[in-house]
Design goal:
The chain is mainly alpha-helical. 38% of the residues lie in helices and 7% in strands.
Length: 274
């Protein structure tokens, strides 16, 4: 995989996720979006492995693991939302609409053209079953005009006159038997009229089909636990933010991280009263 232009951060991925969730259309993103997401997931995995090697039961290790899982879940939702929007654009384009492709990455453009071709073939299914010939054309193709080739004209030759035959004496009118008069079957020629043929109705221009709004995908809420910190802690990374806690702080942490602090006797759970 070629290196990315600039490493993606977890906050940048979260911002892209929020914009794709609230918008009906594709959000313009960096051209190396997919490479940047893959690079981010690899770096978060390496950070988790490093913390796991230092202390698998530490809050740092648990926080790195939660952030890694959260980034993988967000990236899958982003790809799913953008794929649905690209499919809608491709179907509208196959139906004759003029779609803008500025917000698509190179990987998405390749996928878009494949969906357009498949949609056009599917839309002409009825015409093919009727026996109607269909021609697949692209609007962007350049029309090539063939250069006419001049063909030399053949030289004119004067045909030779056939030898004249000796004129035979004209036959007398009495040599042919008289022909009986046969009445004609059709005296009046039939004239065809086109007054009864209905004129073809003009087809109304097809309106582009508007894409349906994307359903909001509910995100899973993480369970949390209320803690009282017993000693000053070094800064550590959480699933959605960084933490810097001190003695006697009251804080709400994700349950896996809270259990790690409780097991190491660095915090105690606080049960709020009724």
């Amino acid at each position: 995989m070629s290196p990315v232009m600039q490493p993606m951060t977890f906050e940048e991925l979260s911002q892209i996720h929020r914009e794709e969730m609230k918008g009906r259309y594709l959000t313009p993103c960096r051209p190396d979006l997919y490479k940047a997401m893959a690079d981010l997931l690899n770096r978060l995995r390496l950070e988790y492995d490093r913390q796991l090697a230092i202390d698998p039961d530490s809050v740092m290790s648990e926080g790195a693991n939660l952030r890694r899982k959260n980034a993988e879940s967000i990236s899958k939702v982003v790809i799913s939302l953008r794929t649905k929007k690209i499919c809608n654009k491709a179907v509208l384009s196959a139906d004759g609409a003029n779609e803008q492709l500025d917000a698509l990455t190179p990987e998405e453009r390749e996928f878009y053209y494949q969906i357009v071709d498949v949609s056009r073939r599917h839309m002409s299914t009825v015409d093919r079953l009727r026996g109607k010939k269909t021609v697949d054309t692209r609007i962007d193709e350049i029309v090539r005009h063939e250069v006419p080739v001049s063909i030399p004209k053949p030289e004119e030759t004067v045909p030779e006159e056939p030898p004249k035959k000796a004129q035979e004496p004209a036959a007398a009118e009495d040599d042919f038997p008289p022909m009986p008069d046969v009445p004609e079957m059709f005296d009046d020629p039939m004239e065809e009229t086109f007054d009864d043929i209905p004129e073809p109705e003009e087809e109304a221009p097809q309106q582009p089909v508007e894409a349906e709004p994307e359903p909001v995908v509910p995100t899973a809420r993480m369970e949390t636990t209320l803690l009282r910190i017993l000693e000053d802690l070094p800064p550590f990374v959480g699933p959605n933010r960084n933490y810097e806690l001190h003695k006697e702080d009251i804080v709400t942490l994700p349950t896996p991280m809270a259990k790690a602090l409780i097991n190491s006797n660095k915090a105690v759970a606080v049960n709020p009263g009724p």
